[in-house]
Amino acid sequence: MRGDRKFLVDENPSPLLPSALCPLPYFQVRPHHRFLIVNHLSHLDFLEEQIALFDAQIAQHISQYPVVEPDEPTTPPDANKPSCSS
Predict the structure, then answer these.
(1) What is the per-residue pLDDT for 14?
(2) In contact, 21 and 29? CB cutoff 8 Å
(3) Which of these, 8, 9, 11, 83, is most buried using a 10 Å CB contact count?
(4) Based on C-alpha coordinates, what's the Rg of the chain?
């Protein structure tokens, strides 16, 4: 878990919790809330790692192909054909 989220698992968290967690004066982050938040954030960390792995894999595969930039925009060969709905 990231270090900036440590306050969520502390039993005696700092009184300076982020304002998003204290929108109302009577709102308290209880152990149940900490459990839920920590698990959601852990899942987000996992998903971010997975996205990074996919990005690396995609970059490796597409690096095999040369980058070809057209001189001018091309029109698909059948763009001027009438469609079936006409």
Answers:
(1) 55
(2) yes
(3) 8
(4) 25
Query: What pLDDT, in 10s, does the model give residues 16-75?
Result: 556 665 555 666 788 898 899 999 999 999 999 999 999 999 999 999 988 888 777 767
Concatenating the DSSP letter of every residue in the chain gives --GGGGGGT-SS--S---GGG-SSTT----HHHHHHHHHHHHHHHHHHHHHHHHHHHHHHHHTTSPP---SS----TTTTSPPTT-
Nearest to 18 by CA among 30, 5, 9: 5
Six-digit token string for 6: 């440590």
Q: What are 84's two structure tokens?
A: 């079936």
Q: Tell which residue, 60, 36, 41, 49, has the closest CA to residue 3.
A: 41
Residue 31 half-sphere exposure toward CB, CA atoms < 13 A: 1
